[in-house]
């Protein structure tokens, strides 16, 4: 029977020796589309070039793993936690050591956390472990038992969305997988009634389960994500936080890619057509799984501004193609085709952090400015809706 502490037994579980994908000779000659499973069990469709890229990525994962294990051997198993230590009361030499660790850690995380270490590194560096430590050890088990039979609008929507959460996945799309995702989502909907449940969280929770391997840790990762990492109100009823982030992103795009921004506006393309899903699902429905994991590696360490870096990078990588489009549908197709085939995370993250940099210190001011405008607009919509109901 599945418990919250037992690790998920997945046939595609990451192993130190990652098998090489080998398309048949016929597929290589014909350059036809082939299907294969990635590290997290998702079925991927691509041509042989995509397979070759994934093999290269897997080799990079191996090499990056060696770097992390070397750091663990030389600095200790939990060396990366030292970068979180308060340096105020430390001696100068120790403060320097903490700073060196923080710089090294940031560089390492941007190059990718090995899959075998992700659960532990995410759990501690995101603040999830600290959040869990503030409540009794039985908190999650007690919560899931207490709400198991409750029926609310949130639970009804969760039940409706479960079959649509990564359909065809060898574990998520099973009764056991559905039950695990449901317990995490229902539990959180009662922990935070302001959020309850919002479509998009089903995909996030499912992917967290695949990485963390236990329901309880996936639950706390979801909690720290919604309560500390992301901006507030992203998943509330009116999605005001998500609207704010999209407006901030639109402003950033106009500053970093002014020619592209003007062209997209001229053809009637609004960034929300693609960015809504990006910000609500944190790219996990748009990018291949390992690329998503690499984005989340940085997200859990550096914060929500990373989502802007990645979104800007996607537009930047497609700038020339998008400038030649005249129809909204064509622009959407270019972006979607690109994101679905970004199998090499380094291609995306190199652009995200080296070619689309911006002043993160200004984000809070931009968010505050946009929040005022968004709340005023939402209030106006609500007034119009109430007026139309009264006149009906």
TrEMBL record:
InterPro entries: Rab-GAP-TBC_dom (IPR000195), Rab-GAP_TBC_sf (IPR035969), Rab_GAP_TBC_domain (IPR050302). This is Rab-GAP TBC domain-containing protein. One of its GO terms (molecular function) is small GTPase binding. It comes from the Eukaryota. It comes from Centaurea solstitialis (yellow star-thistle). SUPFAM superfamilies: Ypt/Rab-GAP domain of gyp1p. Gene3D superfamilies: putative rabgap domain of human tbc1 domain family member 14 like domains, Ypt/Rab-GAP domain of gyp1p, domain 1, Ypt/Rab-GAP domain of gyp1p, domain 3. Residues 112-303 form the Rab-GAP TBC domain.
